[in-house]
Amino acid sequence: MNQKNSFGLNNCFLDLDDPIQLFHEWMEEAKKKEPNDPNAVSLATSNRNNTPSVRMVLLKDFDKEGFVFYTNLNSQKGNELKENPQAAMCFHWKSLLRQIRINGKVSSVSDKVADNYYSSRAYESRIGAWASRQSEELNSRDQLIQSIEDYKKKFSDKTDVPRPSHWSGWNLSPDSIEFWLDGENRIHERLKYSKDNSGKWTKSLLSP
Q1: DSSP string, the chain
Q2: Residue 31 CB partners (closer than 8 Å, separation 6+)
Q3: Largest CA distance in the chain
Q4: Which of the residues 48, 55, 186, 190 is marked catalytic?
Q5: Catalytic annotation on 190?
Q6: Which residue, 94, 126, 188, 207, is the most exposed by fewest CB within 10 angstroms?
Q7: What is the C-alpha separation between 133 and 38, in angstroms, rounded?
Q8: CA-closest candidate to residue 102, choices 187, 194, 203
Q9: 97 dihedral zone (left: phi>0; alpha: psi -120 to 50; beta)
Q10: What is the pLDDT of residue 206?
């Protein structure tokens, strides 16, 4: 018989008041079971006209302050987040039959945080941040390859590739986090954490 938590949900939901702690537990499980990029997450943004767009990004850090990812600030998502800082994330781990949805507001990470992460990237990835004008139209693939080669010549010292000013990170500070577990006959299990005006998390069950 499956163990249940105090809400009558599968015990994988645990009995935690802090959703960040529960996220950590689920992420650790995903790292063990998900074969490719357990930190891959769909990121939804919208522009000032409320036209939505979504794409996959990689989560690079998280704590009680929020969920961090990096990008070209002049890309489509970067420009949309400048216009409208409200965003949403969705993790989906098929191997675990679990999903996590996060809604909140983004803010820029500090230059120090961005510099530290950028310096940890592979040389080719640091060069790519310079060479690719993300989301802009290319005349040809050769144009991008040539740009990469040009920047490799410019930054031939692999230990000294500065971070471009147009490349940095965003932190999504959550207002709500929902944990979802697949159930038989689509009777899924859903637990939502919502943050009140005082910053305290409250829990509620959702119907599937």
Answers
A1: ---B-TTSSBGGGTT-S-HHHHHHHHHHHHHHH-SS-TTEEEEEEE-TT--EEEEEEE--EEETTEEEEEEETTSHHHHHHHH--EEEEEEEETTTTEEEEEEEEEEEPPHHHHHHHHHHS-HHHHHHHHH--TTSPPS-HHHHHHHHHHHHHHT--TT--PPPTTEEEEEEEEEEEEEEE--GGG--EEEEEEE-TTS-EEEEEE--
A2: 38
A3: 63
A4: 186
A5: no
A6: 207
A7: 27
A8: 194
A9: left
A10: 97
Q: Structural domains in the chain?
A: 11-119+165-206 (2.30.110.10)
**136, pLDDT greater than 90:** no
Please determine, for residue 55, whether its predicted confidence score (pLDDT) is greater than 70.
yes
In the predicted model, is pLDDT for residue 2 greater than 90?
A: no
pLDDT at 130 over 90: yes
Is residue 1 very low, low, confident or very high in pLDDT (cuts 50, 70, 90)? low
Report the percent of the chain where pLDDT is more than 70.
99
| pLDDT beyond 70 at 186 | yes
Q: Alpha-carbon distance 54 to 86, whole Å?
A: 13
Structure tokens at 129: 């941040």
Per-residue pLDDT at 97 exceeds 60:
yes
Alpha-carbon separation of residue 165 from 71, 111, 128, 138, 154 (angstroms): 11, 9, 14, 22, 16
CA distance 69 to 32: 21
